[in-house]
Amino acid sequence: MGSKGLLIVISGPSGTGKGTICKALLNRNDFWLSISATTRTPRKGEQHGREYYFLDKDEFERRISSKDFLEYAKVYENYYGTPKSEVLEKLEKGKDVILEIDIQGGLEVKKAYDEAILIFIIPPSIDELTNRIINRGTETEESLRIRLNSAKSEIKCSKKYNYVVVNDTVENAVNKIESIIISEKCKIDKVKEDIDNEFLNN
After folding, report:
1. Domains: count for the chain
2. What pTM was estimated for this model as a whole?
3. Which of 72, 125, 126, 144 is the most exposed place for a label (fewest CB within 10 A)?
């Protein structure tokens, strides 16, 4: 029985380990990670089409006008967005797509594609999140305070997501997400047409 792929949105505050979880999911499963477009300048070692699709501002705004993005946002002076055609093409071919974006973008994706599954990653506690951010060694006291306040605001918005997964260990978090995906694929509205075609219409 064949069916469309799932669009899985992964969000969560900075320091919760979203990137590590997504990497582990990709290593263990045949998922496709959506690549975002941006107008920011490539950093050393980044390549067009690998980390991001690097576009100039005029091209990005032309694509906004053409409704080419599932979601987009302007962060400081740069645009970021999720190209629509590539994602929809993969889903139609039955490929499950992982989208790692912020909560605002995730809610925009849900508006544009109602079947998207939104998963919010949280740390075991605010103390654990604080330790993870401090251990990066890149934060001043002021920037740490800003990040933690931002994290608390984002966690309040997690109620708008379909699922919340606690990242106590990466393996546990990945196991939970894989279980969510299996459960979603078994829902009757996902397989009803396949059941009818395979068993009832012959």
Report:
1. 1
2. 0.86
3. 125
